[in-house]
TrEMBL record:
Protein's name in the database: RNA polymerase sigma-70 factor, ECF subfamily
Gene3D superfamilies: 1.10.1740.10, Winged helix-like DNA-binding domain superfamily/Winged helix DNA-binding domain
Organism name: Streptoalloteichus tenebrarius (strain ATCC 17920 / DSM 40477 / JCM 4838 / CBS 697.72 / NBRC 16177 / NCIMB 11028 / NRRL B-12390 / A12253. 1 / ISP 5477) (Streptomyces tenebrarius)
Keywords, ordered alphabetically: DNA-binding, Sigma factor, Transcription, Transcription regulation
Domain RNA polymerase sigma factor 70 region 4 type: 114-165
Top-rank taxon, per record: Bacteria
Annotated family: Belongs to the sigma-70 factor family. ECF subfamily.
PANTHER family to which the protein is assigned, alphabetical: RNA POLYMERASE ECF-TYPE SIGMA FACTO (PTHR43133), RNA POLYMERASE SIGMA FACTOR HI_1459-RELATED (PTHR43133:SF8)
Amino acid sequence: MALEWRAREEGFMTWDHARFTQLYLDTHQRVLRYALRRVAPEDARDVVADTYVIAWQRRSQLPSNPLPRLLRTTHNRIGNLLRRAATRDALQATLEQLRGLEPPAADVSVLERLAVLEALNRLTELEREAMLLVAWDGLSSREAATVLDRSAATFAVRLHRARRRFSNHLEQLDVELSGGLQLCGSAAARGHA
């Protein structure tokens, strides 16, 4: 009798394992990229591993589209790993190092990248997260709202404000970095008139 029960249990685990393996194969790279943008590679691997352990433990609760839930779990795990101030300080230190590098003939794309990084740094952490989830993770507003545990309407307002502030910061940086020369183009040229 114990042998029969074990065989049924193993059959269930095999089906569950195959389904979960497919989930992992379909989502792992996106979840890892999400984590790598926020923490060091060794920390990202640990956070992603924790995310999938939690997903395995709660596999019966996973929705049909599990990516937003996985990203939300990853987001929460990163939040446990890092303090907000440490993250901001690390980004600020990196930007200061980049500002100190003044090659004789800086490529315009490098200057544009610096302007974008600085504009992102000037956003609040929540605004920055909203922008990154949609622009770099490719999530819809509804999916990004799920990641941040917000309503779709609240997220839409946050994203709208973040985009507006980001555009304003780029405008300011165009003037600050070039003494008036438009490095990234005006807001009208970028379609933000």
